[in-house]
Amino acid sequence: MDGLSRILYIDLSEKKSWVEDRKDLIEDRIGGLGIAVKLYSEGCKLGSDPMDPENPVVFAVGPLNGLYPSISKTVAVFKSPITGTYGESHAGGRLAMAVRMAGYGAIVLVGYSDKPVFIDIENSEVRFRDAKPLLGLSSLEVEERLRTSTRAVESIASIGLAGERVCFYASVNVDRYNYFGRLGLGAILGSRNLKALRIRGSGSLKPTDPEGYRKLFEKLYKRIVETDAMAKYHYTGTPANIMVLNEIGALPTRNFRESRFEYAEDISGERVGETLLERKVSCPLCPIGCMHIARLRLEFARGYEYEPIDVYYNYESMYALGTNLCLKNPTDILRLIYTANLYGFDTMLLGNVLAWMTEAYESGLISDRDTNGLKLNWGDIDAYLDAVKRIAYGDGDLYIYAAQGLKQLTDIYGGRDYAMQIAGNGIPGYHTGYASILGFLVASRHSHNSNAGYDIDQQALKKPFTDEELVDRIAAEEDWRNILVSLVACMFSRRVYTPDLVVEALRTVGFDYGVEELMEIGREIYMDIYGLKSKEGFDPRRIYIPRRLFETPSATGILSEERFRKLLELYMERRFKPSST
Questions:
Q1: pLDDT tens digits for range 388-402
Q2: Are 13 and 113 in contact (CB under 8 A)?
Q3: pLDDT band at 581 (very low <50, low <70, confident <90, very high)
Q4: Which residues, 6+ apart, have CB-to-CB distance to 211 below 8 Å?
Q5: Which of these, 57, 89, 158, 527, could form a disulfide with 78 (CB 3.0-4.6 Å)?
Q6: Which pLDDT value is given to residue 1?
């Protein structure tokens, strides 16, 4: 297992660290998400404030990280300031490889530092270093400062100003182009006075079946590069979704008031690729290059004085900070994405907040006095850039509340019918139908990636499902994805890592599971998470769903809230029905 059962504990309060061997967790839950949930549940204080320093933050990797192509993610589990309960986020980059090469399967952070620190991990050594010189710097600048020329595998995770100021949806940057974006991990690190982690590992990994590993690696590699299973992510990246969703009437525009954007072609992944794409970046051991990097020239002074800026863009950012704000120029969208990343915000929830603020201003719900004179209008890039800065710095009550998310804004000002959030988390850019809303609501981490309800909706456009088929597909997909996140796989490779191949891959590293056994473990992980959330009062039947989702046409037409509620009840009934054994 190459150190997978070795858990590194770090106490920020006491400035100490230790290692525990937890083979029991590996045998029971494989790795990654499975063990992260267990480690989180062992230390989490139910009913406590998410900022309570005793609540653990867990970073975990899986048995296939560092060995197989596109198995490149790290999963983080923590208590979310956005939902008030369980939070989960995933990031690529070199972090998973560095953690494994340093000899660990997970890192557990507890406590609060009395002064700003960054944690420096090199194999078995853990140092607590003064982070005062890094305060106020963006995570992009921190990455430049801390990067070294070491021959070891090195990864740097850090927060920006939004994290330092404990903005609830602050992200954590990993190795410049990757993010723990959703649910506010950056705020949690900021509340602990932790600016960054640098991890360097110089170990090695060995499969238990080298010959079987070699053959399977070659098979998987060919599937990735010689078939169309992941071609979309290489050629256009996820921004290919802009034109696809626009065509079927599922592209949220003007705060979900519309489902098509008249300028979709102008900002499409294809157009940006033709005009602004500079290069593509991959995570270790991944041949795809899904991270598309655009090059901007930002003018900083008169006389043709320009600064070249690299911007990583994806569909979710281009929807949230583009179509949903009615920005029709790709350069403007990229500038806003760059600014969000510079301060360290989750781009999706930030876009939901800016869209709500624009509509609230337009309707008179908030005034010039609330905005401190800033006039928010659809498509006004300068106003949006200014608003992001004001949220980051807390420039007045409106912006302080905005830094805490949509729930806080609507509690103070109203307008919840068009505040596009469910359970506190901002809704992603897929107004495809019932499954997308239901899937987001019941998902363990309230993410479109948890069960791909949006994809189930699109399948239903070709062949309609019964209500029972729809809810069963959501549940089965989530269970299987819990296994993929226990590996920890990139979701872009989900069509490559089919259940039979996952079984085969696990056998090369010493795990003997069958497909049905894996599916049961995936279901148990879901139930573990749901149990934690339930104990803290979460009940999907009591969550408010924005009325707008039932007013704006989706890809499948106007949705009925009555039918949605029936689907939710059916899901709860079938998902939690007593076992027949």
A1: 999 999 999 999 999
A2: yes
A3: very low
A4: none
A5: 57
A6: 56
| SS3 at position 22 | coil
Q: Give the C-alpha separation, 477 to 471, whole Å.
A: 10
Euclidean distance between CA atoms 177 and 173, whole angstroms: 7
Q: Rounded to an integer, what distance in angstroms lies between the CA atom of residue 260 and that of residue 80?
A: 32
Over residues 158-195, the pLDDT tens digits come to 999 999 999 999 999 999 999 999 999 999 999 999 99
Which CA distances in Å does 519 have to 216, 409, 469, 475, 479? 22, 40, 18, 11, 6
Angle at 93 between CA 442 and CA 186, to 5 degrees: 55
Distance CA 206, CA 229 (A): 28
- Find residue 60's DSSP bridge partners: 75, 106
Q: In what order do the strands lie in the sheet with 172-174?
A: 125-130, 117-122, 194-201, 153-158, 172-174, 178-180
The type of residue at 452 is A
- Report how far residue 359's alpha carbon sits from residue 393's, in angstroms, rounded to the nearest whole number: 22
Listing from the earlier edge strand, what are the strands of the sheet with 6-11? Answer: 16-21, 6-11, 106-110, 57-60, 74-79, 86-91
DSSP 2: T
d(CA 493, CA 242): 20
Contacts 24+ apart (CB under 8 A), 297-300: 298/335
Query: What are the tokens at 307?
Result: 């600064």
Q: 171 phi and psi, to 5 degrees?
A: -100, 175
CA dist 282 and 279 (Å) reads 10
- The burial class, CB within 10 Å (0-12 / 13-18 / 19+), for 301 is exposed
Give SS3 for 338.
helix
CATH numbers and ranges of domains, the chain: 6-201 (3.60.9.10), 228-425 (1.10.569.10)
